[in-house]
TrEMBL record:
Domain of life assignment: Bacteria
A GO molecular-function descriptor: N-carbamoylputrescine amidase activity
Domain CN hydrolase as annotated: residue spans: 1-159
Pfam families, per the entry: CN_hydrolase
Protein's recorded name: Nitrilase
Amino acid sequence: RHGDGAITISAGLWAADGRQLLRYDKVHLWGEQERATFSAADDPANIVDWHGWNVGLQICYDIEFAEPTRHLATRGANLVLVPTAIDGTAHYVPEILIPARAAENGVVVAYADYPASTREASGDDPVSYAGNSVVASWDGTVLGRVGVDAQLLIVELPTPESVPGQKSNYLRDRRGELYASWTESDRPRRTAP
């Protein structure tokens, strides 16, 4: 809960001594229940230096949009951590989107979901999640993946210096000034034939 009373879905990164290094509030709310319960954040994501990595956070549905990861990458992130609670029908996210987000931005993406069958603390009914947590390297290579059951995933990351981030071809060659005009309006534009 924020000072203004807004309730957000939040994630954080803490140091070994318990200090909070980074807080991120979810930008894209998924489904009617989230939209009815929580406020979407408007603040851009921050980045923190953590053990030589420039770390950014996203939450769940945020990674399914290209812009938040691009925002982090253009500001120097080279590692993006994404806790999620994605439902069991969305296997394409860990299988396709996560490696794509990593490659198109020259960053490492670590995406952690609940196991496929998880019981909510508030009841006995199981909830179906996708599972399939994955870590993808800056070139889209999958460094490690787990299945749908609860498992521990340990991967060897590339060195932070070897991750291109802002020096990747996609970031170097992008034309942000042009894209800004493309997103000025949600209204479709049509030209006469």
